[in-house]
Design a protein that fits this description.
Elements (H helix, E strand, L loop, with lengths): L10 E3 L7 H12 L4 E8 H4 L3 H9 L5 E9 L3 H11 L6 E5 L3 H12 L9 H15 L4 E4 L9 H12 L7 E6 L2 E2 L2 E2 L2 H18 L3 H6 L10 E4 L2 H4 L8 H12 L5 E7 L17 H19 L6 H28 L6 H24 L10 H7 L3 H16 L3
Parallel strand pairs: 1-10, 2-3, 2-5, 3-4, 6-10
Antiparallel strand pairs: 5-9, 6-9, 7-8
Protein name: Glycosyl transferase
Organism: Colwellia psychrerythraea (strain 34H / ATCC BAA-681)
InterPro entries: Nucleotide-diphossugar_trans (IPR029044)
Length: about 400
């Protein structure tokens, strides 16, 4: 059972009483009669053939309060798209599959590329962005949850708890971030959050000084969780990164656009496990190495927009400060693991810290060399301003794909 401690500038909604999932689901069904509820699922085709997604869909199809499910499908050819349509046809809720690699959506992407308005790289950020556009275009859901498709420990109440803060009409939250303990198979996971993000925020506080933004970011118990929910109006003006800085970028945008009292975090699972990325010690273009560089750049860019000046000397100081703090955390997590009978490989933990420290310097050097670099995808408000009927074009493309191929 969790405690009730409020640890920062955003509200934390705990799992205090192990409430019966059916009770919350019944409440959500009542809320859905006046505030329609939706779900976004950004997916790779390969996940349809994995262990997690079939189990997720088997549980989601029993959810009665969802008005719409939007699936973003990446890395799929025509036959794979047809298979996806068949795979998701078991869902009784209204649902659509966005074939992101199909000719119709590719034509829309090319049109946006010509105006400098399209995502610059492939990945989850791009997938989520197009799903957000379709949500705006369809208008079928007012409060929407988003979660990953590789959750191996998925339970129905994860979705219930994730949606509840933005579904309950008595709450005023525009955005809710999920959190959970990254413990599975007798191990503590979540290395990037534990060993990079948390000590990096502490190190930035020491080198940059007091900053409301850093206090806000330090409030989140699991800032890299891929699960969050939001009211539909959030989608109009949010700019999301297309790289691995997606989660940090979304939190930063919410800080820019909303007061902290409109933002919360919610405990959504007692255990959580999903696909793990490689540490990639020798490959800064992949795995946790690239992720750590993108995340570090996301923090640096955000602080720069608030007037903070960075130099090569400051980045060296930041690296040294981070390194000492992160090593202290390794000992803390080892003690926590031992007391709970869990495994923690100190050697691999310290190797990760060493790599993250070097990558903070790499991120800083990249920022200094390319200060105008921006991975943010334009907001849908800006895109609509440039192409007023773009949302209707997007919806039509998705509907035509569905109509043409679902019957074949």
């Amino acid at each position: 059972m969790a405690d009730f401690y409020q640890n920062g500038t955003v509200t934390t909604l705990h799992n205090l009483a192990q409430r019966e999932p059916a009770d919350m689901a019944d409440e959500l069904l009542t809320f859905s009669k006046t505030r329609s509820l939706g779900l976004m699922l950004p997916s790779l085709f390969s996940e349809l053939e994995g262990q997690a997604l079939p189990d997720i869909i088997n549980k989601v199809k029993e959810v009665k309060y969802l008005s719409e499910i939007v699936i973003g499908l990446d890395r799929a050819d025509l036959e794979q798209y047809k298979h996806a349509l068949s795979f998701f046809s078991q869902l009784p809720q209204h649902h659509r599959v966005l074939w992101n690699d199909g000719p119709r959506l590719q034509a829309i992407d090319a049109k946006l590329q010509a105006l400098g308005l399209a995502p610059k790289e492939l990945g989850k950020g791009r997938n989520v962005w197009y799903c957000m556009g379709y949500i705006l275009a369809s208008g079928k859901a007012e409060s929407i949850a988003l979660h990953d498709c590789d959750i191996l420990t998925y339970e129905r109440d994860l979705l219930d708890r994730l949606l509840y803060p933005v579904a309950n009409p008595l709450f005023n939250y525009e955005f809710s971030k999920g959190f959970y303990a990254r413990v599975a198979d007798g191990k503590i996971n979540g290395r990037v959050s534990r060993l990079l993000v948390t000590p990096l925020i502490k190190a930035l506080k020491k080198t940059v000084g007091h900053c409301d933004y850093l206090e806000y970011m330090d409030s989140f118990l699991y800032p890299l969780a891929g699960e969050f929910s939001f009211r539909r109006d959030v989608l109009n003006d949010i700019r999301i990164p297309s790289d691995w800085g997606l989660e940090i970028g979304v939190l930063s945008e919410m800080y820019r656009n909303y007061s902290p009292n409109r933002i919360c975090q919610v405990d959504i699972a007692s255990t959580y496990d999903h696909k793990h990325q490689d540490l990639s010690l020798d490959n800064s273009a992949g795995g946790l190495s690239k992720m750590s560089i993108d995340i570090s750049k996301a923090f640096i860019r955000k602080l720069a927009t608030q007037g903070e000046t960075f130099t090569a000397e400051k980045f060296r100081t930041l690296k040294a400060t981070y390194y000492r703090i992160a090593l202290d955390y390794v000992e803390t997590y080892r003690n926590d693991a031992m007391m709970n009978g869990l495994k923690l490989d100190i050697h691999n933990e310290e190797k990760a810290v060493e790599m993250f420290a070097e990558n903070i310097l790499t991120a800083g050097s990249t920022f200094l060399e390319h200060p105008m670099e921006t991975p943010f995808i334009p907001s849908w408000n800006r895109v609509v301003s440039a192409i007023p009927d773009i949302l209707s074009q997007l919806k039509e493309a998705v509907e035509l794909d569905n109509e043409e191929f679902s019957k074949k």
